[in-house]
Amino acid sequence: MNLKNCILILLTLLTLNSSDLFFITKLYAMGTDMNEFDLKKLKIKRKQECDLDKTDRSSLRGILSECFPECFTDRVFYKQLPTMRLMAFYEKRLIGQVGIDHRVVSVNRIPYQIFGIVDLCVTGDFRSRSIGTLLLTALENLANQCDVNYVVAFADQHELYKKLGYKQVKANCRFLAIEDLSSHSIIERDESKILLIKSREDVDFTDKTIDLLGHLF
Ligand SMILES: CC(C)(COP(=O)(O)OP(=O)(O)OC[C@H]1O[C@@H](n2cnc3c(N)ncnc32)[C@H](O)[C@@H]1OP(=O)(O)O)[C@@H](O)C(=O)NCCC(=O)NCCS
Description:
By secondary structure, this protein is an alpha+beta fold. The chain is built from five helices and eleven strands. It has one domain: Gcn5-related N-acetyltransferase (GNAT) (Aminopeptidase), CATH 3.40.630.30. Strands 1, 2, 3, 4, 5, 6, 7, 8, 9, 10 and 11 form an eleven-stranded mixed β-sheet that branches. It binds coenzyme A.
């Protein structure tokens, strides 16, 4: 990560606490010119699922089907709706999003509140400009504000997550299997290859079973 990106993320961490709608103008003022990408025009908005309007849903369908063509065609969710989303707009165009699944999981019958990362994506022409990093940083900041101690991702590719301090965890997961809008079974299996966790606490889930108390997001 270059110096500009470090400054960008550091400043973002400082600016995100105050509100669910924030502007990243400050970063631009600090002189982060990113190949004509104008940070003044970037806004990240937090929206509850029930606050999405018709335009939001239509933009989400577009970006999700572009970024996950094998999973999304005409829906704004894959298995289930997230609790809320962080949506990145450049001027009025939706260019990135991450869904947040706020839930309780259980390990040895001890409940832990988590934020599950759902369908993080950035549209093709805006990638590699730290927008994915900003979305994850905003999500983690919100997790801190909400006293959520674990941020959990299931991902095949780990680069971005590892850069941000997520750790691959060797654990089993128990979850409700959903296929084609139908719940069909409870599965328990080793998800070590795709399970990534970032935490404020030092609790070790290694070789334990994490009961997701719902679907795998
Ligand atoms: C993953 C993704 C959101 C990253 O967005 P971004 O704005 O480019 O992210 P950043 O600029 O902050 O960081 C880019 C880094 O993310 C990493 N990365 C690229 N694709 C990735 C992926 N699919 N999963 C995880 N990390 C990825 C790379 O290390 C990349 O570094 P590079 O630009 O030097 O190649 C974007 O590539 C995307 O939408 N991919 C398609 C959808 C997807 O696979 N989502 C991940 C679901 S877990």
